Amino acid sequence: MKLVRLRYTKWYQLLSRGIFKENPIYAMALGICSALAVTNRVENAIAMGVGVTFVLIMSSASTSLIRKFIPGRVRMVTYMVLISTFVIAFQLVLQAFFFDLSKSLGAYTGLIITNCIVMGRAEAFAVKNPVHFSVIDALANGLGYTFTLLALSIVREILAFGTLLGFQVTPDGWTNWVVMAMAPGAFFVMAIYMWIMRTIAKLDQEGA
Amino acid sequence: MLEQVKMILFVMILGVAAATILIGTDSYTSTIIQENQELSLKSTILDAFEIAYEEGTIIDIYDQSIVEEAVEGYTFYTTSEGYVGYEIEGTGLWGPIEGFLALETDLVTIKSIRISYNEETPGLGGVVAEKWYLDKYRGKQFSPEIIIKKDADMSKINEVDAITGATNTSTAFQLLLNENYQQRKEVLQ
């Protein structure tokens, strides 16, 4: 009984939409760039997922907080300023307190600024909704993004390096599929993944 | 008119707020970041010379065992055993590659290389920073220069295997090693 009611609460709907039905990557085809680039190892996928989720939550919360004051004509500039401020602050904090992690993420943290999902959620949701819903929406989309990255990177790391999070998982004599670590491999895995997920989520039903 | 004034005011306030956050974070973190970078450089140098240290003793051990020397605009680092090293830097495929190279006492044989920063593709070009790969350079000589190629003849004194699937990074790394050495060659001798 409780479970049935749970399904009709707004936050549940927001979560399930962001993670599953309207997943930013396979349903909306946003953030594909970074999803292709960093998914050759699970470790990178996790770090990138955490970074994007953090920036999403911060930028959605702040956009939502000042939504009544943002003049329509400069709203894009506003998102851009907010997002880049948080990304740079995030980078500085990483360098100060998690120096090793910041080195291995190197170029990727800067890429968060250009991730369409962050700006997409600000424009599509945060600017029209109260703070608490915006944060849940941002969290859901961040998780949806992270799960997709994880799924892709698990397949790619096993095939490309025979490892999972750096540990050997394939039998001896396994030949690494080098192509899986490179861009073409990323496209193949991404396409197959989108096909499977869009079928499960019933996104491509004709006449629907 | 009023709307435009509001807009300009909003943008100004937003700019000031963003700048405040950034200046605040920067002033809070900049000294810590500097210390981190200094520690990172010193530990890279100690690693390259294969001097053992622990997390808390990097600066002490470094001060005891390494002498910094500036000659003709180049900084050299020497140990009491007579090993000489220098910082290497150059362009990789996607961004800068930085690190440290230690030479044996004959000044042409590589003792070891450590890479402290790179932006190459993790798992492909990024292998350039991994210890097992850099260990292949041990004992190789700049005579006349290091050659990095596929299926290298490891018995030759100046040939090293390229990184699988990362030809461009390998080529860039070869150029970087040779250029950094050539620049300093005369000063070294």
Question: How would you describe this structure to a colleague?
Answer:
The complex is a heterodimer of chains A (208) and B (189). Chain A is an all-alpha fold. Chain A has one domain (25-202). In chain A, 70% of the residues lie in helices and 2% in strands. Chain A is built from 11 helices and 2 strands, in the order αααααααααββαα. In chain A, strands 1-2 form a two-stranded antiparallel sheet. Chain B is an alpha+beta fold and 189 residues long. Chain B has a 5-stranded antiparallel β-sheet, with helices on both faces. In chain B, strands 6-7 form a two-stranded parallel ribbon. In chain B, a hairpin with a 6-residue loop joins β4 and β5. The N and C termini of chain B lie far apart (73 Å). The mean pLDDT of chain B is 90. The A-B interface holds A 38, 40-41, 44, 69-71, 73-74, 77-78, 81-82, 85, 88-89, 92-93, 95-97, 99, 103-104, 106-107, 160-161, 178, 181-182 and B 3, 6-7, 10-11, 14-15, 18, 21-22, 25-26, 28-29, 32-33, 36, 40, 94-95, 116-119, 121-124, 164-165.
Average pLDDT confidence of chain A is 87
- Percent of residues in β-strands of chain A: under 5%
Q: Helical segment tally of chain A?
A: 11
Whole-number mean pLDDT of chain B:
90
Helix and strand element order of chain B: HHEEEEEHEEH
Instruction: Give the assembly state of these chains.
Output: heterodimer
Strand order, largest beta sheet of chain A: 1-2
What gap, in angstroms, lies between the N and C termini of chain B?
A: 73 Å
How helical, in percent, are the residues of chain B? Answer: 40-55%
Classify the helix fraction of chain A into a percent range.
Answer: over 70%
Question: Quick one: biggest sheet of chain B?
Answer: 5 strands, antiparallel
Number of strands of chain B: 7
Structural class of chain A: mainly alpha
